[in-house]
Design brief:
Blueprint: H1 7-10, H2 23-34, E1 41-46, H3 52-64, H4 78-84, E2 91-95, H5 102-112, E3 122-127, H6 134-145, E4 151-157, H7 165-168, E5 172-176, H8 181-195, E6 198-199, H9 201-210, H10 215-228, E7 232-233, H11 235-242, H12 247-259, H13 262-271, H14 277-293, H15 301-319, H16 324-340, H17 344-356, H18 385-401, H19 403-412, E8 413-419, E9 422-427, H20 431-439, H21 441-452, E10 457-462, E11 473-476, H22 486-493, H23 500-521, H24 523-532
Length: about 550
Amino acid sequence: MKHHQVLALKYRPSTFDTLIGQEAVVQTLSLALSNDRLSHAYLFSGLRGSGKTSTARIFAKAMVCDKGPTSNPCDLCDHCLGANENRHIDIIEMDAASNRGIDDIRELIESTKYKPNMARFKIFIIDEVHMLTTQAFNALLKTLEEPPPYVKFILATTDPLKLPATILSRAQHFRFKQIKTHDVVSHLCHILHLEGIEYEKDALEMLSRAGNGSLRDTLTLLDQAIIYSKGYITPESVATMLGLLDPKELQKIFTAILNGDKTQMLNIIKTLESYECEIVIDELIAYLKNAFFEQDRRFSTLLYERFFKILSEAKSLLFINANNGFVLSLVFFKMIEATHIKSIEEMIDSLEHEKFRMPPPAQAMVEPSLHVSPISIVQPMDNSVQTRQLFDTLIRKVQDRNAALGECFEKNIRFVSYEQEHLTLSSSAIEEESKLLNTHYSIIKHFIHELFGLDTKIKILKEERAPTLSDAMYEAGLHANDESGSMIESLEFEGSPQSESCATGAMLAKEREIDVKEILNDPFIKRAQELFEPRKIEIHPKV
Ligand SMILES: Nc1ncnc2c1ncn2[C@@H]1O[C@H](COP(=O)(O)OP(=O)(O)OP(=O)(O)O)[C@@H](O)[C@H]1O
Ligand SMILES: [Mg+2]
Ligand SMILES: [Zn+2]
């Protein structure tokens, strides 16, 4: 029966050419070999399964090869063959994880005193060197600094920070990188080809992502996937095997987000309960990254940025042990919200557009005869008999005070509504009559306060005749110390050429009424409100 070997061992690289993703390391070591500039101690550090031990072995072989030292060992001589089979008598491997004590190191130091048996060098590969005890390190220091000329050390570790500075300063340090997904995937393709196993490339991407840049981890997962998928490796089978989301599910999630489909989202959140939240978030990030590189048009750059930010914030929430379901719901709903948010530029554009847009066509006030009926802005109306009677009393009071004013008031001013201390009237006064009302505005205001209460705010709608002003609406917030009451402005505004600033004020008031609500509803502003907790300040036009 054929002996089965795991892929990671079966495909351990034995030449610099077959080593993947460590070009910088390979280049420097090759140069040192071909220029005969070998140091006596090397330190290889980096992620597990990224090729440190493999490189150490290739490097050792390159030093002992008959043709060497050479960056291209012949693979034919006894030294090369011995090295390849891991049985070269002068290449001594020691695992510091299991031989970490002072005695082990003493033994090693002792053997450095004897010349190599057959090769030109005696090479010590010490793996997981950070595991040595402090005494062992100290014992090693002197030999490491000044070994006999035929001795070479290659130390390897995943954790160089745990090494004493004294060791670090005595060895040339090479840092091994995480291997890029792209490189890992093509390596897997190559291996599966040799093994005669069918696959879908997406599945390999998922495996290499799960391997996190460690080729050994990825190969171990590949072993597992081959068995699990029964010879045909698909994204679905890999997803189930790794406890990842099915790629179709991810597709569904983003469609729901982009459509703002909250009901669908809630269903999805339920189905995600059986998954590890962190895995879901990682998958979402990976999906987005992929979409970004493939220039998926469904997402704008701004949206990518926001989504990534939301996802990374979610990760820190997980870090503080927030409830998984909660974090996921938060992520999805924040993402839905983020799709509505406009960019600053869009906001400015729309504000400018609002500012310069033409007044909307007149609605309620076109026909003076309609003045009491549907004024959509003032709802709900309270036209109870009582308040109407109060208004009649108001007319009488004004008449009593000043007959001409009373007559003018009765003729031009109509009651519209009284609700929550807001009295809304409409006025059809123009020119002389308008002036008369303006001049005596304080009297009118006084009576209104007397009858309707001191806190009553007065709003006067303009009944229009001329179409150009047909939609003008005047708002007057009345304050105890504000004697320049805005009713005057309103009425002055009517056809009066010198009152340009009033006109602007009135225009602004109108715009504010119409647009502010819209703008305040914008999610961007809402978010700003959440952040800055602003107070609402009403500004009333004043001349
Ligand atoms: N850069 C690489 N190129 C090709 N194969 C690699 C590479 N890195 C790792 N591998 C694969 O992973 C296996 C383990 O690699 P190696 O023992 O060299 O890793 P390591 O960095 O020493 O890991 P550890 O820190 O866990 O000891 C190899 O047998 C090989 O199959
Ligand atoms: Mg190793
Ligand atoms: Zn050789």
